[in-house]
């Protein structure tokens, strides 16, 4: 059983290292590298990267090396709008465009230990002191670091994933937040699952030993 417990502990520690969430901020050299690569990508793929570079600057300014959650407030279009010449140019359903975007971006997130932690449709109204902006959906996405997000932005710049996003979305407000208090922790959840596996396995082995012992005693009495 000791080996079994060691294996479970090793699995958790290995996952903990991969999941990360605590590191060093980007260096000046790293920040320059990401921005230079984005500029080169724009030249190669004939894309305007002015806004992505601006978004990179915003993230770099607030980087502390640690994990963060990106809050996405989304208002969908009434009719999907793809760029002229896109193979999806005839598509009119924004829900389908958003679904394509979600399916395409999820693998890019997961391979960087990042993941959506909440997606929810807006249900009604309450307080709106900020004007007449109304949203259809709220999404919270956990990123391991700004470094990971910039790397993902570079990879996306070589693909057409973003076309699905803007075909579906009329407007959006996206900003990072730092968790101060959260009752939902993937680290804690995984730890609890592994502990339950260990406890349940131990229980089954002890039960099996007890049955074997009882059977042995009964067999001895019958002799």
The CATH class name of the domain at 24-177 reads: Alpha Beta
The portion of residues forming beta strands comes to 5-15%
Mean pLDDT: 91
**What is the radius of gyration computed over CA atoms, rounded to a whole number of angstroms?**
25 Å
Based on the coordinates given, report the CATH architecture of the domain at 24-177. Answer: 2-Layer Sandwich
Give the number of helices.
7
Proportion in helices: 40-55%
Determine the structural class based on helices, strands and strand pairing: alpha+beta
Main β sheet profile: 4 strands, antiparallel
Element order, helices and strands?
Answer: HHHEHEEHHEH
Q: List the strand order in the largest sheet.
A: 2-3-1-4
Determine the N-to-C terminus distance: 33 Å
Can you describe this structure in just a few lines?
This protein is 53% helix and 14% strand. The protein has 7 helices and 4 strands, in the order H-H-H-E-H-E-E-H-H-E-H.
What would your notes on this structure say?
- It is a single chain.
- The protein is α+β, with helices and mostly antiparallel strands and 223 residues long.
- The model has no long low-confidence stretch (mean pLDDT 91).
- It has a 4-stranded antiparallel beta sheet with strand order 2-3-1-4.
- The chain starts with a helix and ends with a helix.
- It has a domain at 24-177: Alpha-Beta Plaits.
- It is built from 7 helices and 4 strands.
- The longest helix is centred in the C-terminal third of the chain and has 36 residues, at 186-221.
